[in-house]
Every structure is written in C-alpha cells, then in structure tokens.
Amino acid sequence: MVSRACGLFLRSPAKAAERLTAGSRTAVYRVALHHGPSVIVKLYSRTARRNALTEATAIRAVSAAVPVPRVLGYGTTSTTGATALITSDLGPDTLGSAVRSGSVPRLQALRDLGTLLGRVHEAPVTTAAPQRQAVETVASLSRHCPPDVLDRLAPALAIITGTPDEASAVWCHGDPHLDNVVLAGTRQTRHLVDFTDAAPRRREADLAHALVMTDAHAQWDRHAILGAYPHAVSDTHLAAWSAFVTVSCWTHASPGSNRTIWSDRLAELSRRTPHLFRPHTGHSHAPNARRRAR
Fold first, then answer.
1. CA-CA distance, 3 to 1, in Å (whole number)?
2. How high is the pLDDT of residue 167?
C-alpha cells in the first residue's frame, strides 16, 4: 500500500520503507524514493473517521501560523475507502528526544510547546472546517471506559459538554506532546507533526492534553507551558479537560507498568481536584485516592 500511495500521488516508486509507528487505524512509514528525498507516508484504514483528507486539511489550515511538514499528496488508495497522506520528511529528531539526551532543557521544551500551541490556535477557522464536538469526544471515550469510572468523572464531563464548542473554537492539534515536535534545519526549527486528531474545538482541550502528556503538573512545569501560551484560558475548562484526558489515558493504557503510572496520576488528580470527581462508592475499576500520610 505504501508503494501504491507513492505511485498514485507522487508518480514515483518507493525504493525502501521503514515503519515508524502502527496502530489499529493508522501506520506511518519513512519512505526512500527512487527519485528525490525521502518522504513520510501515513496510511489510514477504511474505518478511520479522521483520515488523510481531514489531516491534510488541518495541516494546510495552520501552515501559515506554525511550521509543519509540507503536504505532498493525499487521497483514497482503495475501493474500500482506505486513504494515505504523504508529507515531507523533517527527520527523526524530536523535542522529546532532545530533552531525553539533555541537549534541550525540559523547561525550555515545555515553553516551546506552549508557544507552538499559541500559534496553532491563531490559525483562522473557516465554517467548512470539520469540527469535533465535545459530546462526540465523550461518546468515544464511553465506548471503552468502564461505566463506573466514567460516572465518577461526571462533574468534569458536565463542564466539558455544557458550553457549545462553536462559541470559542480554535484549530487544535489534538495530540500535542514533545515527540510530536520535530527539530529540523540548521536552526533546529520546531515543527508540529501528526495532525491525525486536529479539529476546531476549545483551546483548553489542547492545553490540557499538553499538560497531561508531558506530566507538567508541578508548578514550574505548568507555568512553563501556560506562561508561554499567549491567550486567555478558562481555568475551569482547563481543569475539566485535564481530568478527561487523564481518564482517557488510563482507559487506553496497556496492562502492567503503563496502567500503574496512569492509575497513580489519576488518583493524584482526584485528590488535587476532588470537585471534578464524584465521591468513590463501592467497587470501581479506577484507583482509589490514597490517604495522605499524617
């Protein structure tokens, strides 16, 4: 399918392909072409609601506001509705890998992420842009999250779904974290990549995702992101979205150490913001808030 996409949209055959990521509905490859530089090919299954067409639309919509990969081609690759997106290859270096290697301080990386999100959220939203409603997002989580856990989150969900998204919708990246920022060029310019879940929605959803996925809950980490973010934010909505994203990460975490990490984070969050959770009653799949040491 990679070769087919390159032939259809680039008119150039693929020489070699390296799979970078693979999920239930998408797979991403770095592809060497017979002619020209390497490219990134993302394949979407026919069952993916957000596909190559919606991602290409998002990338182009924000391209004047923030550095992004160049869209080289996209479209349908099969009669069943599978799609593919081909973009320029910015290289393998991410802000996350730079932090892990020590070449970029963590606080600077968080400030960079906050700045990028501020620029993305300034991109104009047209009436034709495919919005993703908060109700749709909650419904998606409800198909996977245990009902008792979702019930405990009811106060946060009421805040998230209580205000129409159209009232304050901006272009949101959908999955902002340090490994979705690629460093490219001699100046190591920060580029946002992976707009799979991009759509117009409340800015607090994007900021909450960034805070949760970078584990930026310490005061200095949180200030690094929010201090670099140039727009006004609703603290109430930011807290509610942070609770939602944490529960979503716990729900989709694989059993073992990963699930334990998110269980601990969820328990800590319920202690810090008890007003966003219903009191625990009876048995629950979610971790109980541990008693503070006296």
1. 5
2. 60
